[in-house]
Design goal:
Number of helices of chain B: 10
Shape of chain B: elongated
CATH superfamily of chain B: MetI-like
Oligomer: heterodimer
Low-confidence stretches of chain A: none
Shape of chain A: globular
Strand order of the largest sheet of chain A: 16-17-18-13-19-20-21
CATH class of one domain in chain A: Alpha Beta
Number of helices of chain A: 22
CATH topology of one domain in chain A: Rossmann fold
Largest interface: A-B, 29 and 20 residues
CATH architecture of one domain in chain A: 3-Layer(aba) Sandwich
Helix content of chain A: 25-40%
Low-confidence stretches of chain B: none
Number of domains of chain B: 1
Number of strands of chain B: 0
Amino acid sequence: MTVLRVTDLEVGYAGGARAVRGVSVTVGAGEVLGIVGESGAGKTALALAVMGLLPGGATVAGSVRLHDEELVGRSDAELSRVRGKDLAMVFQEPALTPVHTVGDQIAETVRVHCGVTRAAARARAAELLDLVGIPGAARRARAYPHEFSGGMRQRVMIAMAIANEPSVILADEPTAALDVTVQARVLDVLRAAKEAVGAAIVLITHDLGVIAGFADRVMVMRGGKVVETGPVEQIYREPRAAYTAGLLRSIPRIGGADAPRPRPERPVVLRVDGLVRHHPVLKGTLVRRRAGTVRAVDGIGFDVREGETLALVGESGCGKTTALMEILRLSRPQEGRVVVLGQDTASLNAARRKALRRDVQVVFQDPAASLNPRMRVAGIVAEPLTTHGVPASLIKGRVGELLEQVGLKTEHARRYPHELSGGQRQRVGIARALALEPRILLLDEPVAALDGSAQAAVIALLEGLRERLGLTYLFVAHDLAVVHRIADRVAVMHMGRIVEIGPVGDLYRAPAHPYTRALLDAVPVPDPLLERGRRRVLLRGDTPDPMTPVRGCRFRSRCPRYPMLPAADGRLCEEQDPSPGRETDRLVACHHPLVTIGAE
Amino acid sequence: MRTRRGAAGAVLLVLVFLLAFAGPLVSPWGWDETDFTAFRQEPSARHWLGTTQSGRDVFALTLRGARRSLAIGLLAAVLSTGVAAVIGTAAGFAGGALDRALMWGADLLLVLPPFLVVALLAPGGAWPMLVPVLAAFMWMLTAKVVRAMTRSLREREYVLAARFLGVSGPRVIVRHVSPRLASLLAVDASLTVGVAIIAEGGLSYLGLGVRPPDVSLGTLVAEGHGAAATWPAGAAAGLLVLIVLAVNLLGDGLRDVLDPLRDGR
C-alpha cells in the first residue's frame, strides 16, 4: 500500500535555481526509502517540499499525496495539522529549544495533535524517551537539551517524530553530525522506533554506507533529477547508471589485505612526548573560580618518520584536534615535549619559530572557514610567500605553479572562495599550505566536509603530493575508511590519551584495544548483504564527561570487555590507569588487550 | 538597490557641503553682520530666511553653523571610530593583561559623567579642541563591540591559518580581522556623526562648546528654545536632520559595498 506518492515534483528557489526537477517517487507502508546524492542534488529541497517547509519565495509544482490527500497548495495552517501527526521530520541538527525541558518539548508535540491532558502527555513523553533508549527516562525528561549529548538529542528528535505514530518519517541526514559509534546506535533506535509505530521512513543521506544496512529501496539523485531507483541489493550490486557506479566507487572502503610493510628506517621528523593540554573551566559570575579541568590532551606520545603518514583517529572531543593545534603553536606545551625536525619547540625564539613555520604547515577541516572570504584565491595562496619575504616578482609565477600542482586552473586565481566548490576550496587550502615547500603537513579532517567524489579526488591529490614532494603527514580524522586508505600508521585516541598505535594493516586486521574494535565495527560497510549479516560490538553510553577524573581505566564505563572480566582481572581496570608505555611502534593501553602485542 | 541608497547619501552630503561652503558666496549678508533696520523679520527677498532678534541674517548664520557642525561631527566621528577600532582590535586580539588594561580604561570613561569632565577640561574656546574631547567619550561602546568581534574572529580558521603561516599579529589584524569589521565601523561612524553634532550642541548650549559670537547648528537650535520666532531654529534643525540622514545613507551604502558576499550566498 502506498502512503506517500510524489509525482512530477518541481521546486524552484527565488533567483531561478531549480532545486528539484520532475521527481516522482512512491513510499509504501512500513518501507524504508533511502535517498542518496551529493550536495546540491536536491535531496533536502525535496524533503522540505514534501513537508511544506520551503523558504518563502520558493515555488512548488507537481503533486505530493499522503494517503491520497494532496499536500501541495495547502495553506501552512492546514499543513500544520498534518506535520508532526501523519508526517514527521528528523533534521540533521537536533532542533530543540534550549529553554524548555526535553520532556515538555515531546509532550507539546503530543498535546498539539491529540488534545490529551498535560499529565497524560508527560507520561507519554517519558514512555517515548524510554523507547528511544534513554536510561532513566522519567527523570531525564526533566533535563534541558544542553545536558544531553549530540546522540541523545538526536534520539529525542526521533522520539518527537514518532510521538503521534506518523505514517511517514522524513529523516534528513540524521547521523551526519554524529560520530560513527553513536551513528550506529541512533540508526538502531530509528529502526526500533519504526518497528514500534509501523511508519515508513525516507532516509536522506550522502553516506552510501548508512543506506546499505538500512534501506529497502534506494533512489539516487543528481542535479534535482532522479538518476535511478531500485531495491537496495540491485543498486549496490548492479547499478544501471554510470553515475551510481561512480558514487559507489568513490566510497573509501576498509578491506583488501595489504601486506604489512616494515617501518622505513628514516629520520624522525616529528616527536611528541607526554604532551598535555588542560583547559581550566571557570564558573561563577562575580568571582570566577576554577571549577574543574578539561583534560583535552592528557599525556600523548608518538613519532612520525620522514615520508610517513600517521593518522590520529577518535570520536569528537577526544583531543585529536587539540593535539594538532598544540604542535602547530610551536611553543612550550603545558607539559611534555614537542620536537619538530630536531628542534625542541620549548627552546625556540621568535625568529627561529617563524623560520620553522616554513617547514610545518596545516590544512584545516572546513575550507569555507579557513579561507578569508574577502581575499581572492591568488591573494590567499600568495600570503605565505609575502610573509616569508619572497620577492614580489617571483610570487605570481609561484602562485600559478601551486594552483597547477593542486589541480586548479590559472583562472581560478581571480575568484573569491565562495565562487568555488567545496573540493576546489580545499585545493586552495592545500596550495596555501604547500607554498613554502614544507616538510611536514598537519591535516585536520581535510576531507570531512566534502562530498564523496570530491573526497576521493582530494585524497588522491594528497597521496600524489606525498609521493612527489616527499611530504610527511600527520592526519587527523574520524573516518576510519579514509584513514585506511591514506595512512601508514594509526594512533587511536580516547579522552585525551592514545589507547592504541600501530601500522594500519595490523591495527585494522587485529585491533588490540576494545575501543579500536568498536570503532571499526561501527563503520558501516557499503554493501547491503555484508552489512546486514555483520556482527558488531557496540559501545555502551556516550563519551564520559571529560571534566570528571576517572580512577583507573578511562574507557571502563563504555568497555564491552570489562563487565565480562572475572572480578580479579576487573579490579586492575578499576585501580590502575593502563599506561601506553614508551615504545611507539605498536602499543596498546589496555590491561586485557584483545590480541597480545608482540606475540605475532 | 541598497547601493543606490548609498549613492543618494553621497550626493546629498555633497549638496550639503556645497550649500555650507559655497552658500556664503551668494548670500547678500555675512554671518557676523547685523542689519539694524530689521530685527526679527519674517523671511523676505532681503533676508531669505529672515533675521534673528538681534538683526543677524538667519541664512548666513545657519550656513556658518553647518560648517562648524559638519567639521566637528565628521572629525569627531572618524576619530572616535578610529580609536575604537584600534583599541578594540588590540584588546581582543592580544587578550591577557593588555586586554584587561584597555577595557578597564574604557569602563572608567563609561562611568565618568562626560559633561563634568568636559567642563573641567573646558577647552580654551578654539573649536578644534572640541573634536578630541567629544571623541574621547564616544569610542568606548564601539570598542567593546569591536573587541568581542575580534575575539571571535581570532578563533576563525583563516585567522589561525595566517598565524600558523607566521604572519605577524598587526598584519593579521589589518589583512584578516579588520575587513570583517569594516562594515560595522562604517555604520558606527555614520551614526556617531549625528551623535557628535548633537553632543556639541548640548555642550555649546551650556557654554562649553562653540562660544558666541561663533555659532554651530547646536547653538542655533538651542537659541530657538523659548524664542518667539521658530524659523531660525527650524532652519538649523532641518539642516541637522539632512546631514545626519545623508551620512547614515552613505554609511548604509558603504556597509554593503564592503561586503563582497552580498550577492554570494
